[in-house]
Fold each of these.
Amino acid sequence: MTAKNVVEIRGRGIVPGRVEGEALVSHETISGWGGIDPAAGTIIERRHELFGVCFTGKVLVFPGAKGSSGWSGFFQATRLLGTAPLAMVFTTLSTKSALGAVVTRVPTVTDLDEDPLILVRTGDLVTVDADRGIVTVRPVSP
Amino acid sequence: MRLADDEKAMRDGAEGPAVAAAMNLLVRYGEALGAEHLCDTRNVAGTMTQPSPVKERLVREGGWPKAFSVINLDSDAEFEIPHMRVPTCQLQHGFSDDALGVAPYPASMVDLQADAESFYGAHGVNILATCTPYQVGNLPVRGEHCAWMESSAVVYANSVLGARTNCEGTASTGAASLTGKIPCWGNHLAENRHGTHLIEAEVPVEGFLDWGMFGYFVGDLVQENRPVVTGSLAQPDLTDLKHFGAATASSGGVELFHLPGITPEASTVEQAFGGPPPHRLVYGARERRETYELLNSQGSSSDVDFVLLGCPHASIDQVARAARALEGRTLTAELWIMTPRALRTVADRNGYTEIIHRAGGRVLTDSCPAMSKSAPEGTRVFATDSAKQAHYLPAILGIEAWFGTLEECVDAAVTGTWRGELR
């Protein structure tokens, strides 16, 4: 890991806080109701690229929310059941994703100046500084 | 986000701690959206009574006040809950006692929900218990700011009624019910209500099946955008547009569409776009066939053991048509038709329920197999006239699906065999 590989993406923090952790990247939008199991913290949509994968404790990087208006309630349940992601970084802001991030209460950054779905890979070490609206990406391999 | 004086007072506790917590959530949410201010609403449709494992635990620990504080206000503290400040209704929830012995669903959940109904009913929540509140006593008027959940109801309220609501969630509707406020963002603003895509039907769109397929095509095409649909469209009725909107919100995330000359905010195509229309996209015979095949791509066995009608919840007209189709028949497969409890009462008075029961079918209320994750024991293959239920139920219950007309569904329930085809 060298400093020159470090990428900084600037956006808008919508839930405050600063954390550092491993990225889990979904290129597909995520459903709440019918899409995740809050008890296990996993993606359960059968045709989803992350089917069966656990997001607990990960920096979840994804395009945005889709599906039912139950989205925020399902992500709130991950907080109440101890399976929430560590942070969220998403590109498309909607009422579902905004409220979902707020009630999950994890540091969240959106409205980004570069596309995190291109710049971040699963396993990268990511710092989400939602107080300043900065996402710092340290690739695991060159 | 700017707060008005009454909003600052609520935030600072003038109306008590539960209202202050509600305003705290609305401020966090509104600022996350980038909303400039809140707007007044006197029409909230949310969910408080639906059982879940988390809710069951919270009720055990601190009763319904704790469940409402934690889930519907997103608070860590637990408050006494005041009467709803503005008219608020409960959307669809879990199965009720009418499903006991019919749907495999825990009796403890039915009891928990009945207990919730007593609590919330006493606090001013109207227990409409349906995904179609606009059918049974909550019919917003044009321009009315609402705070609604349930994607099929949101798209109906915005598009068919010209009301203004975003697709809200459990906590934002809970907070709105105690404050009469919701972030003024998205669909609440006139500049966000013009069409983005023009889709022209070159094949006739007439009847429940075709409106559902057209909606499924349109939603898949435009995703979260705002379609304007024209072409060879027959005059739709409530059930057609209920099906069309629900389908657009299943294959995509449509919250607002315009049907020039029919829906209230667009007399013409130009008015729908607020200017010149974009390049036209076509729904022709090939697209219709592909949509039908997509909806029927989740079935391989033609041995149908369950038929589901009434998604979104059936109108009284749909219940009447189902009764006529079932009169004098004997079913081999299970058949459920979902409808709001208020319309079930009408169906009982008219004798429709008895006709359906005599054939071996069931008229159920409050919920649906997707919401309650419950179909008849041993179901492997189901048939439905609903594009939305065909979209969701295979994933939720791991079963195969067939999509067709009411008559084809009834035929499958009688014979146990799917014989549907696109005509």
Note: The longest strand of chain A covers residues 18-25.
Amino acid sequence: MLLRVEDLHKRYGREEVLRGISFSLEKGETKVIIGPSGTGKSTLLRCINRLTEPDRGRIFLEDVEITSPKADINKIRAQIGFVFQDFNLFTHLTALDNVRLGLMRVKGLPKKQATERALRELARVGLADKAKAYPAELSGGQQQRVSIARALAMDPKLILFDEPTSALDPELIGEVLSVMVDLAKSGMTMLVVTHEMGFARSVADEIIFMEKGVIVEQGPPEQLFKHPKHPRTAEFLRRITELYGGEG
Amino acid sequence: MALEPWLKVWTNLPSFLQGLSLNLALLGGLLALGLVLGILLAILEVYGSRPLRYAASAYVWLFRSIPEVLLLLLFWFGPARFGVRLSPFAAAVLALGLRSAAYQAQIFRGALRAVPAGQMLAARALGLSKFQAVRFVLLPQALRLSLAGWGNEFAVVLKDTTLAYAVGVAEVLQRARALSVVELPLTLPAYFTVALLFLGVTYGGLFALGALEKRLRIPGLEARR
Amino acid sequence: MNLVFKWKWLPDLAQGLALTLELTGLSMALGAVLGLALALLRVYAKGPLLPLYGLASAYVHFFRGTPLLVQLMGLYYGLPALGIRLSPFLASLLALTLNTAAYQAEYFRGAIQSVKSGQMLAARAIGLTRLQALRYVILPQALRLVIPPWSNELVYMIKGSAIVYLVGMLDLMGRARTIGTKEFRMFEVLVVTALFYLALILLFTVALRWVENRTRIPGLGVPGRS
């Protein structure tokens, strides 16, 4: 088991965002989290690499407890890739330097090696020719692919995707999804929050439906889409299909 | 530190306040001069013909680039050189007021430009002349938008009034100096008292301006900061 | 009315100019170091460091809320009462430095806070420590953003340093006063001195605009600088 989340709780002030979340992820598995907005999906992802501190519950990456106060969180974060909804590429750095920064400063790779590795990752997402470009000179789709390359370069055991296509214009979504599909096929372990039901259906090994801070239902895509056990799941799927078109 | 020098300084508080009242009078005069001239310059810079625009910009650059204390001396020795006698106070109002006009012009210019172009169009479409449009539509909005920047300028020129010390105006710094020349131990308390007075006036003034800004606020018309 | 100009004033004024440059340059540099430290405290000091936040804030408010001339005279005439006697140069340098540090702190703080919050998040997400994130991600952006307000501050300090003649320094302004008095040509000398300042400020404004353009990065900038 690569990732294990046990009874995770988080509250902001009076609002309980996560109310006892438990699930696990095998190596090489892709799980997709769906659910209405504001149900704590992003918070859950951020708790996993402790960009947000959970109030209660435990998280394990292999046999290391991430939530332990003694955990070396920076070392753990280097093993967990994170792809943000709004990319968060470093504004002052070129695509190449964005990918290289973690290699050099976290992993301590010499510049030459870091450059080679970074260029390889940029090529993998189809952006070798944009190495010298600054984020502002790239389209949203290209920026998101650079940010995936930035995550990949660290040799993560797991990549967390936080609505990676939500900030993109519709015509740019495809290029990012296809990179993600390739990644999943290559055996990367992925946990993806998304509203892209087509992606969820075709790529996910399992889908987690979350609402109001709890996991309502989880299971393989076919089961969830065709025979949801819970009426809330059915209701959500019906609405999201209306909203995002007939892929679902 | 001994308390006695402080008490001695504070028995002279009336003298400090007299001096401070001169600073405040100077402040009032220079802000008024700067306000009128600054609005005029801003309008010229935004709506004037090309030569007028250049002239206004040149003025702004000139008065922003000469040290304030040097301006003061220029307006003190300059008129005298041509046979005109100005009081030190008048020279200070003139020098600092003309300088403040340059800064206030920049504030108003920014505010005028921040008013959406559609406002001018709509005003002209109603049949208002360009001047009327500026007077009744643009300026009322721009002046509200400039209050924040204006507060900043207030704080700057308030402190600059102490420069009148250089031409011998009996303002508050002069009072501290006079007191401390007599007795060395009084020096620090004297200057500290002046500093406290300025802190009071600066933050008091900024607070009042903030309150004014709130009162004049109109929904949908906010300075973008 | 005949105005007089003499070439022999210029070498003297140039010497004063050198001192003005020295005072401004040193105080701007020292002020930048102190200002950055104050800004970091104002942005990041929390929890057990909260008292430091308070101190930094009090410092900034005090020095921004009181006139530079009061600070200068307080240091020069006031410190001897405590047994600390500063030379006019040291008193001037100290006053200018302490003053500009407070202003620069606010510029740095504004720049740091205008770096988008996602930048820190992304930096931490790849495993950088807080300090590394500051060093490699936040500051490189903030320092570029701070160039425009910093050039304004430089202009302000070139002008502001003119008051040091009031404690007897022979900076550009001080030279002007002595020549003017000696020659009974105060107005003319002051006009020439004003030209010196204008040239100096023009030079620095152009130079800093150049630096700003050289270090510009697409997508990183403050729209609408005044």
Note: The interface with chain C takes residues 49, 51, 74-79, 82, 84, 86, 88-92, 101-102, 105-106, 134-137, 147, 150-151, 154 of chain A (CB under 8 Å).
